[in-house]
Amino acid sequence: MMKRALLILALLCAGTAQATEQYVLKFATLAPAGTSWMNILDDWAKQVAHDSGGRLVFKMYPGGVAGDEPDVLRKIRFGQLQGGAFSGHGIGLIYSPARVLEMPFLYRNVQEIDYVREHLMPEIDAGFRANHFEEIGWMEIGFVRFFSRKPINSIDDLRKSRVWMWQGDALGQAFFDATDISPVPLSIADVYTSLSTGLIDTVPSPPLAAIAMQWFTKTSYVTNTPMFDAIGALLVDERFFKKLPPDLQKLLKTTGTAVGEHLIAETRKDNAKSLDVLKQNGFKFTMNPGDVKESELFDIRDKAAALLAKSGYIPQDMFDRTRKLLDKYRAAHPQDQSVQAQPH
Amino acid sequence: MNLNSLYAAALILLLTGCSMNQMVVRTSTPMLTGGITAMNHETDLKLAKDAMPASLKMLEGMLVNDPDNSLLQGYAAQGFYGYSYGFIEDDDPHRASALYQRGFAHAQQALHAAGLKLDVLGTRQQDLEPAVAHLDRKALPALFWGASCLAKWIDMNRNDPLMIAQLGKAAVLMDRVLQLDDSYYYGGAHLFFGVYYGSRAPMFGGDYARSRQEFALARKITAGKLLIGDVLYAQYLARQQQDRLAFHDKLTAVIAAPPDLFPEMALVNKIAQRKARMLLKLEKEWF
Asked: pLDDT of A234-288, one tens digit each?
């Protein structure tokens, strides 16, 4: 009888210990404190702490304090961090096929992005899992355009420019190879100075990033044909995620998905506002939709895809499936074919 | 007053281009300057916080009577900056934003009086740079407090692309201060650039070595007596570099500093100590 009572007591104690165990998710992002992005992530942390009764808490490392994305990945692998918000650059280091969503000249508008992503996400999530990460939420950094010192009205104009490429970026390299452009590979930290000295005169960037990085102060023109849609993801180390009790896993996933959707909506708003700011700053919009034949852009896209397939960065069949999804969407939405890059 | 006196007074007004109200304002200015000195010596934070709004309203009242008085415009920009930074922004960033905006509006007027005939916010940075390069030493207060108010106004609105786009202009104004007199206002321009380069990752334009250098130059100018420099170092550079030891040590030293360390800037040092205590409470969360 005594033995049984002790056993029950021990079980009760174990249960209590499990229920009150606290999990700390150390999470890094490049988003600076106070920005829309960071405010949303901070609110997420508060919500998770509240809804879990304090069992799951975030410790945020904003503004790149934990280093750039390769640094953050290294720290995750060493167990110093458990997660982070990554751009395509970091995503490419984890599961590069996800960057099929960043193929150049793929989409005409955000509706196409949303459709394709929704259909590819199960496969992309599986890819992250196979590489020891759990995708918690999806983000977007926005349509990338060329910011330049001289007007760029055609792909030929682009060929005559000194264009920056993020050093070591496989997707960027494939685009430039397919376009027959010799880019200037530089670290992102050197872009502003290189625009000042004239080493480069053109940078690909979403509008908000061009403003945040102050690149817009060194350029006067911006292209109006979307080059590609820069992606992002909220990712958590699989080892951490698997340690969580099922209810906390569910909480992290459901809130993370909602946060991702919120981030996408805010990013789209901020990029639209940024285009207004550029207009107010006297920017001239070049290479408007229709100025360049779509067939020329598609040719570049397909050549880049072939190069990426050859290197194994993005499998050809994944690109082909993406194309088919787009064809299907376009066939079902003939009214929704406009190229959506104009500032409103 | 006899007729001759009236003629004499009228002649003075005509010759100086002053109205009676302007005369009154200008003769009162030394009192105002004395008031600012007394405020800087204040060691009772509550007294300073309670007294500043009345002083600011009096300043604005004087500007109503003498709207082109650039000395008063500079004081107003400084006053709104000091009040907001010292007493408002930590509890109410929304209100602080409006106060910094108001301070910047006064500085913009002072810049105009100093020869900058364009609107800072509405001018492209590329066009602002050459215009600011022509300003001389008499523009120092307007440049310094204009840059300070603008930078903090942006800081309170980091989620607004329109404001983020103005950041480079604040640096343009402050860079001119560095060129004209880097020791102006206790080396405040060096503190500005210490924060400017220390609060961002290198990919966003941060430069930690430059930041460290700027903080060191500011410290040298006041022989380390102005404590706010060490607070800003901890808050921005040490946090950005995840240097917990520097964060802790600097803030702890600021709190331990004697009250008579720098009597002419006693109020700013008191504010620095209050902010240091507040930041130390965040140590566990930030590192």
From this structure: 999 999 999 999 999 999 999 999 999 999 999 999 999 999 999 998 999 999 8
Say which residues have a Cβ less than 8 Å from residue B269's Cβ, sequence separation at least 6. Answer: B225, B226, B227, B228, B257, B259, B261, B262
Question: Residue B264 above 50 pLDDT?
Answer: yes
Q: Give the alpha-carbon dihedral of B176, A197, B167, A32, to 10 degrees.
A: -140
Residues A263 and A271 sit within 8 Å (Cβ to Cβ): no
d(CA B92, nearest CA chain A) in Å = 14
Check if the beta carbon of residue A196 is closer than 8 Å to that of residue A142.
no
Spell out the residues 6+ positions from residue B147 whose beta carbon is closer than 8 angstroms to its own.
B170, B171, B173, B174, B177, B189, B192
Contact of A270 with chain B, judged by CB distance below 8 Å, is answered with yes
Burial of residue B212 (number of CB atoms within 10 Å: 0-12, 13-18, 19+): middle
Q: Closest residue of A to B162, CA-based?
A: A277
Which pLDDT tens digit goes with each residue over B174-216? 999 999 999 999 999 999 999 999 999 888 889 999 999 999 9
Task: Assess contact for A229 and A101: CB atoms under 8 A.
Answer: yes
Q: How far is A210 from chain B (nearest CA, A)?
A: 9
Token pair belonging to A93: 């280091």
Smallest Cα distance from A64 to chain B, Å: 5
CA closest to A212 among chain B residues? B164
Q: Given A35, A65, A207, which is nearest B239 (Cβ)?
A: A65
Could you give the ipTM of this predicted complex? 0.81
Separation CA A73–CA A137 (nearest Å): 17
- Read off the amino acid at residue B45: L
